[in-house]
Design goal:
The chain is α/β, with parallel strands linked by helices and 389 residues long. It has 2 domains: 125 residues, Rossmann fold, CATH 3.40.50.300; 247 residues, no CATH class. The protein is 39% helix and 18% strand. It has 16 helices and 14 strands. The strands form 3 sheets. It has a 6-stranded mixed β-sheet with strand order 9-10-11-12-14-13, with helices on both faces. It has a 5-stranded parallel β-sheet with strand order 2-3-4-1-5, sandwiched between helices. Helix 7 crosses helix 13, helix 11 packs across helix 12 and helix 13 runs antiparallel to helix 14. The protein is globular. The two termini are 38 Å apart.
Length: 389
């Protein structure tokens, strides 16, 4: 059933576009379902890769050899041969009837090659892991917290084994094969250490000390994670600030299951704390997908004052101004609302929301308190689970 799950992701009209997203988010499956008549050039296939690597301009010969009618060409994993973009750019300029769909799981080689992403001739789209509303009744919060929402994991017979293989895939194919780092062991250690910073402000000096490498290397590792689309950074909300706020972003792995798999666990680790950080990351990845897939432009932030008041997420845009706090608890206590009240006292235009693990939708002290499962299932592009003021 899940193999035929309808995705919220879409590409409008006849535009050429880049589709970026981590491995396993379903880019290739979506293309096969929606672009059945496209010519697909898969650069993960070794023979195809070597052919185009030797002659990136070969794409022009392929195009010229086809029928003279509007056609769609898909280049899967374009970052493996960035030099192809020069020829594709020329083709888009000279043959207006052509449409190119270029997928990628990494922006690093494209940046390193100094390409300009076709000078704005192609849209930039992102594909995210499943959203709960895409899965509907197949969505289960405990499984999502442990294994995440990547289609390749969700549809696996053994998700525990599959997610371990997934992480190994990135280490071997994306990092080692592309020669992004010198020591894979150091990088693997870094992936575990940085998991303790999931949902927190980064202290790169401490991370460097724990990893036994220089801060410069840690900065490079972080840029690799970001370019491979495996993490994101959440900036602090500073608009019209009435209090002094911090100025460092928070770090998140892109998927709750990846975080959960990489986070070391032992007798001294608090399981509730680990699940709480996974829950926070799960909500963020849904908000990012919702924002990307919706027509209305929104930005995501967090809010933290130097005195320690913090709200997990601020959704800000022309139609939305929402402050969201996430609690890994089945009850709502008055103390849980303190930060939201502080934020609303500074920004009375905002709608405060608390998401928790309970079963009831309530309003407490003027704050909307919703079960997190209901919220995630109700979060769909171009809409919100409840009316916001």
């Amino acid at each position: 059933m899940l193999k035929h799950t309808k995705r919220f992701f879409s590409v409008s009209g006849d535009d050429s576009c880049f589709i970026f997203g981590p491995r396993g988010t379903g880019k290739t499956t979506w293309i096969k379902d929606h672009l059945q008549h496209a010519k697909i050039i898969n650069l993960l296939d070794e023979k195809t890769y070597l052919k185009y690597l030797a002659n990136p301009g070969y794409i022009k010969e392929v195009v010229d050899g086809g029928e003279a009618q509007p056609r769609i060409f898909v280049i899967d994993e374009i970052q493996k041969i960035p030099q192809m973009l020069d020829s594709i750019h020329d083709l888009i300029e000279s043959k207006k009837q052509l449409r190119f769909i270029l997928t990628g799981s990494s922006a690093r080689k494209l940046k390193r090659a100094g390409v300009n992403l076709l000078a704005g001739r192609a849209l930039l789209k992102k594909m995210h892991p499943f959203m709960a509303a895409e899965l509907g009744g197949a969505f289960a919060l405990p499984q999502a917290l442990q294994f995440g929402m990547l289609p390749i994991i969700v549809m696996a017979n053994d998700p525990q084994e599959k997610i371990a293989a997934y992480i190994s895939l990135y280490l071997k194919e994306e990092v080692q094969a592309e020669a992004l780092i010198r020591n894979v062991g150091d990088f693997a250690r870094f992936l575990e250490i940085i998991s303790f910073s999931h949902g927190a402000q980064l202290n790169t000096s401490n991370i460097a000390r724990e990893c036994g490498v220089s801060r410069k290397i840690i900065d490079n590792y972080l840029s690799i994670l970001e370019d491979l689309l495996l993490c994101s950074f959440l900036p602090v909300f500073t608009k019209r600030a009435k209090r002094e706020v911090v100025n460092h972003p928070k770090f998140y792995y892109f998927d709750a299951g990846v975080y959960h798999a990489l986070r070391p666990k032992g007798p001294l680790d608090n399981v509730s704390e680990i699940n709480g950080m996974a829950l926070e990351g799960l909500v963020l990845q849904h908000l990012r997908a919702w924002s990307e897939y919706s027509k209305d432009h929104t930005e995501l932030y967090y809010w933290r004052t130097v005195s320690g008041s913090e709200v997990d997420f601020i959704v800000y845009g022309e139609k939305y101004f929402i402050a969201i706090e996430v609690k890994n608890s089945d009850k709502v206590f008055t103390k849980d609302l303190k930060a939201l009240k502080a934020f609303v006292s500074d920004y009375n235009e905002a709608t405060p929301v608390l998401l928790y693990r309970g079963a009831d939708k309530i309003v407490k002290d003027g704050i909307i308190c919703w079960p997190v499962t209901d919220f995630l299932l109700g979060l769909v592009p171009n809409g919100f689970p409840f009316t916001v003021s």
